Amino acid sequence: MNRRWVARLLFALGAGLLLAWLPYLLTQGVGPASVDLSGRLGLSAGVRASTFAILFAAGVLTSLTPCVYPLIPITVGVFGARSREHRARSAALSGVYVGGIAVTYSALGIFAALSGRAFGSALSSPWVVAVLAVFLLILAASMFGAFEMTLPATLEARLSIVRGAGFAHAFAMGLVAGVIAAPCTGPVLAGVLTFVATSRSAALGFWMLFSYALGMGLLFFVLGTTSLKLPRSGAWMETVKTVLGVALVAAAIGLLLPLLPKPGTIPVSPRTIMWIAAALAFGAVLAGALHLSFHGDAREKAFKGAALVALLAAIGLRLGWLGKPHMAEIAWIRDERTALQMAQATGKPLLVDFFADWCAACKELDESTFSDPAVRQTVVDRFVPLKVDATEETEEVSRLEEKYGVPGLPTVLMMACNEPKPVESQCAVPQSGPGRISGYVPPAEMIERMRSVE
Q1: 295 within domain boundaries
Q2: Contact at 8 Å (CB) between 178 and 101?
């Protein structure tokens, strides 16, 4: 077995394992507010260290895409260390350049947080969603080789003759580089900005986008500081472009799904779906979904296309695009007064879930946590469940958000309502602790929190 097939086999195994754990990995960016890291950063919604690591890695991957790749030799030519005595200055210039990229994306994160619900609501508009989906599909076509995305010849010529750039010039070039790279950031940027908008935390927006920008700038810094040379584009670049193309198509489909009819149920268990999807992804990558090119002969193009369709089908099966296994659902109450009266009559605590259609983390709670059989049974046995739809800003939604102190979505509250008080004020709303959840929590933690509420 030659090296090429060994690499393909390893990629196939990695794809199968990744797809098996994909729903779990997609929820690792959000966690309990008590996480030490989030406390140190002052984030209103907790995050895990893996959040920043994943965003950093996504930034590194983005730096190898066609949107950014043309900037690398130009940057090296401007800042690259030509001798040991210039290495310190080159490192400083490269650092300032990366700082300019970081400022561009961090500003986007802060803007999304401050715009809050307006940003998320815009993404619920069918017209906005359709335009974004088409844009992502066009970018995916570029990744698959339909056309090349390069800098305008005049801009590339101007940048290539720049020499002796000062720190202000380096910073300005970094700002421009961040804008030029924007078309390749679609699948990461859209998801992060939407999540930041639901949390309404400027600090969260800053640090998440800052981590992503640092990853994007790492290659620039290394090449600008050292005398390393970037390998020529080739098979490895085709693999990187295909991975990002698949991510772009998946992001586009994910945006369009809420606008399409809901698929039916699949008469198999979630574990069976997981293994089928993982096996399909393994076979697709082994067949050449990532390694073959659309620039080859007709046979290679056909194999590449069929393998890509199989890989996307595996992703769709795993993420529920093609249908979900049949599972019992929580019988949510949609009227607050009815829920309060029932809690008072039964003596059970009240569980309130604030959600919105445009809130990605809210959907993760529904699909990964509240759909878990153990969580569902605990809710049924111990709580009166109330779900508040905050997709649209109405007077009633504003009243409930103010009453329960909801700073962002998703928010889950668990509170005792068994005191003999008037219906409208009988529940003690938790301000912190296990009874207040901001963001996604996995099933085991949700059960632990629910059991701590009496």
Answers
A1: no
A2: yes
By three-state DSSP, how is residue 287 classified? coil
On whether the pTM is more than 0.85, the answer is no
Q: Distance (Å, rounded) from C-alpha 194 to C-alpha 253?
A: 16
CB 263 within 8 A of CB 321: yes
Can you read off the two tokens belonging to residue 242?
């295909």
Residues 225 and 125 reside in one and the same domain? yes
* Statement: residue 409 has pLDDT above 90: no
Q: Does residue 20 lie in a domain region?
A: no
Cα-based distances in Å from 234 to 29, 237, 248, 283, 293: 33, 5, 21, 23, 10
357 and 253 share one domain = no
Q: Which residues pair with 412 in a beta bridge?
A: 353, 437
Say if residues 123 and 363 touch (Cβ distance below 8 Å): no
Amino acid, res. 420: P
How far the first Cα of the chain sits from its last, in Å, is 62
Identify any residues that bridge with 351 across adjacent strands, giving them in sequence order.
385, 414
Rounded to 5°, the CA angle 360-361-364 comes to 95
* Domain-located, residue 151: yes
Residue 181 within a domain: yes
pLDDT in tens, 346-387: 889 999 999 887 676 787 788 778 988 899 999 999 999 999
- 232 and 341 inside one domain: no
Question: Residue 366 is part of a domain; what is its CATH number?
Answer: 3.40.30.10
Residue with tokens 């993404």: 123
**Which residues constitute the domain of residue 217?**
31-258
pLDDT 10s digits, 111-152 = 777 765 556 556 566 777 788 778 778 877 877 877 665 555
Residues with Cβ within 8 Å of 182's Cβ and at least 6 positions away in sequence, in order, are: 67, 189
Residue at which a domain ends, from 235, 258, 281: 258
Q: Which residues contact 263 (CB under 8 A, 6 or more apart)?
A: 320, 321, 322, 323, 324
